[in-house]
Amino acid sequence: MPEGTSETKLVNFAMANKARRKIINFLANGDRDIEKIEEIAGKKTLEFHLKILQDAGLIELEGRNVKLSEYGKNFLKGKKESGTEEIKDLSQVKPVEIAEIRQLLPCIADSSKFRVIANMAPPLGGILKILEPIFPKGNYLDRKDSLIVKSGEIITTIYGSGKVSMRMVKNEDEAREELESLKNTINEAILKGVFPVPREKIRVELMDIYKYLPRTNCGKCGEQGCYSFAIKLMAGQVTLEKCTPLKESEYAYNEEQLQFLAVYL
Ligand code: SF4
Question: Keywords assigned by UniProt (predicted)?
């Protein structure tokens, strides 16, 4: 049964596609042979869809017979119980536009760089999670319904409300270029469906974590200091939320960096 972050991402990706959701719902009524599934999901890409569902641990293949795995059954049951129904697909989603760039302010972390607040319309609330796999360095944060995308030094956060915050850009031209590229990547996914790109493997070292903590050793997290906190965070014994000073505006950039890195721990 999928348990970790990468397995969860496989399941999210598998269920982000309409044909695959159709297959899963079809299998909810019992095992089927491949020919029957072809009738409802088409023949052309069936092999591909079955492989994705199998990799996500949702189905099992035995010769020409396809059935839901135990995990697949529990997954469907959980969806019904939580009332979350289906994950939205992208066929009804309209292409996005960058409606406006509202601010260009110096970055707190590096005053030679800028941060930008922009607006994306229509807002992508509810489908940001589906878009996560199209970015090599993208992390969806459920808690905030936001998608953090990293490109070089630039960190962009897209919120479900349509707000886009971009940090560490050199100037307005770079911000516009980056926003345009972001828009094109998203619109391509809306048009053609979500095709995941290879995830960049990120090895996180203790010092990567430590350097983004406030390093004030205030003890508000209950640890002796930031270094001890970093060790425990690496070991999965504490969560980032325990470091409350990170919520202060001066550490906004640090918090985003840490949230990004924490996914790879
Ligand atoms: S609360 Fe944050 S800043 Fe304070 S000691 Fe803990 S890790 Fe460091």
Answer: 4Fe-4S, Coiled coil, Iron, Iron-sulfur, Metal-binding
The alpha carbon of 5 and the centre of ligand 1 are apart by a number of angstroms equal to: 25
145 and 63 co-located in one domain: no
Task: For residue 24, give both structure tokens.
Answer: 């899963």
Distance CA 180, CA 177 (A): 5
- Domain boundaries, position 151: 97-192
* Minimum CA distance residue for ligand 1 atom 4: 218
pLDDT < 70 positions in the chain: 1-8, 78-89, 91, 108-109, 195-202
For the stretch 87-98, pLDDT in tens is 446 767 788 888
Q: Check residue 193 and give its pLDDT.
A: 72
At 14, phi and psi to the nearest 5? -60, -40
What is the pLDDT at residue 101? 82
Does residue 124 lie in a domain region?
A: yes
Among candidates 41, 10, 43, which has minimal Cα distance to 27? 41
Q: Which of 229, 231, 240, 241 to mutate to test the pocket of ligand 1 (most atoms within 8 A of CB)?
A: 229
pLDDT at res. 199: 63
In a domain? residue 22: yes
Other Cβ atoms within 10 Å of 52 Cβ, number: 22
